[in-house]
Amino acid sequence: MKVKTILVSQPEPKVENSPYFDLIERQKVKIDFIPFIHVEGVSGKQVRSQKVDLANYTAIILTSRNAVDHFFRIADELRFKVPDTMKYFCQSEAVAYYLQKYVVYRKRKIYVGKRTFTELSPLIKKYKTEKFLLPASDKLKSEVPRVLNDLNVQWTECVFYKTVVSDLSDLKDVFYDILVFFSPSGIESLFENFPDFKQNDTRIAVFGNTTVKASLEKGLRVDIQAPTPENPSMTMALEKYIKAQNKK
Q: Which of 3, 15, 170, 202 reaches 20 to 30 Å from 111, CA-CA?
């Protein structure tokens, strides 16, 4: 079956050179971007209820830009002046770069991993006498606490923001050839919004093993998967599939 329309369950890319825009141009398909989930911050009162005092920590572990935003939001709400001596351990270069929104980069102690949380662990281990705070979402990847516990460092997890299902009622009577998901939360949102969803001829594209697992548990048929050795990105996987289907 030919592919003409795709729904990506994430916000529209803000960069002009996104591979999704190239895909639209090359394959002449329509792609809509609608977030199936969104993030909401918790209050300073809720942070305090988790028995967390920001003044007790000497290092912050930041796994995403959301973590950066909500750490500084809470610090501001609680009138906590983040000391210049605070150390920041960022999971990736993208997170470290985003940190510049709040701190003068060259004046701070910032340590940067490569991509995965495991790749950040040698840096954390090097400073194991620090008291680490992990501003997290309510859906923290299991890899993170496992790695930190294995390092035997002093660390505290605190929920600073939550992943919330978006209202998708506007999509009730809209059909797409392909639905693209990037997390188990996106699959959860699909069925929370549409409990009677039937896949039928809709193709499902998923990114990551945990998303595959969540899809299969809901009885979905996974037609497109990334990353794989052949298709390291979702756009590559989509393009390969579209080319094969549309030439029939």
A: 15
Coil, strand or helix at 60: strand
What is the assigned CATH class of domain 5-36+168-246? alpha beta
Order the strands of the 222-226 sheet from edge to edge: 30-33, 5-8, 178-181, 203-207, 222-226
Name the pTM for this structure: 0.78
Mean pLDDT of the chain: 94
User: Is 40-163 the same fold as 5-36+168-246?
Assistant: yes
The 10s digit of each residue's pLDDT in 25-76 is: 999 999 999 999 999 999 999 999 999 999 999 999 999 999 999 999 999 9
- Sketch the domain layout of the chain as residue ranges: 5-36+168-246, 40-163
The SS3 of residue 126 is: helix
**What is the SS3 assignment for 244?**
helix
Q: What pLDDT does 123 receive?
A: 95
- At the topology level of CATH, where does 40-163 sit? Rossmann fold (3.40.50)
Three-state DSSP string of 102-122: CCCHHHCEEEECCCCHHHHHH
Cis peptide bond prior to 227, omega within 30° of 0:
yes
Note the pLDDT tens digit of each residue in 144-156. 999 999 999 999 9
Instruction: Give helix 209-217 / helix 184-193 axis angle, nearest 10°.
Output: 30
In 41-56, which positions are buried (b, 16+ CB within 10 angstroms) versus exposed (e)?
bbebeebeeeebebee
Cα–Cα distance, 9 to 37 (Å, whole number): 8
User: By three-state DSSP, how is residue 29 classified?
Assistant: coil
Which pLDDT score, from 0 to 100, does residue 241 have? 97
Dist CA 9 CA 190 (whole Å):
10
